[in-house]
Design a protein that fits this description.
Keywords: Oxidoreductase. This protein has 5 helices and 8 strands, in the order αββββαββαββαα. The chain has 161 residues and is of the alpha+beta class. It has one domain: Roll (Pnp Oxidase, Chain A). Strands 1, 2, 3, 4, 5, 6, 7 and 8 form an 8-stranded antiparallel beta sheet that branches. β3 and β4 form a beta hairpin. The chain is globular and about 50 Å long. It starts with a helix and ends with a helix.
């Protein structure tokens, strides 16, 4: 519950992608979560998207504020993919407008952006207990199943609660 609470309470993440020469490219950007999956929008011709299309492996870091014993930070090893199904894009856009009506999800203009879905493989949550940081890692399903469109296996999600 603490991980989902943290993901739902924040709006910014740091996304790290791999450049073709192997150097990392990290950017802070807005996101919206649906369960453990994260969504963001980016320009169709951005370096970030070019790197994701060449290598969909990404890293994510999200930092929040929490009470003693709750997750204060989350990092993920994940895969990213561009949404192409118009129905799914419409659902994500509606979710953004519902949760954050002050945001304009298609700014720089329709057709110039894409929606990217980040599907976690491994999640590491950090909590502060008795003034010290404690980390716990969770595996989220099979990579091949994730890339085949399965968002995450229910048994893995159950272990988070």
């Amino acid at each position: 519950m603490a991980i989902l609470k943290l993901l739902g309470s924040q709006t910014l993440m740091t996304l790290a992608v791999n450049r073709p020469d192997g150097r990392p490219h990290a950017a802070t950007l807005g996101y919206m979560n649906d369960g453990l999956n994260l969504y963001f929008m980016t320009a169709r011709h951005s370096e970030k998207l070019s790197n994701i299309l060449a290598d969909p492996r990404v890293g994510v870091a999200i930092r929040g504020h929490a009470e003693e014993g709750e997750a204060v930070g989350v990092s993920m090893d994940a895969h990213a993919r561009v949404l192409t199904d118009p129905t799914e894009i419409e659902q994500v856009t509606a979710m953004i407008l519902d949760r954050a009506p002050e945001n304009t999800p298609w700014a720089p203009g329709e057709g110039k952006t894409v929606v990217v879905k980040v599907i976690p493989e491994t999640i590491k949550a950090v909590a502060v207990i008795d003034g010290r940081s404690h980390a716990q890692s969770y595996q989220i399903g099979d990579v091949e199943a994730v890339m085949a469109g399965v968002d995450y296996e229910p048994s893995a999600v159950a272990r988070l609660f």
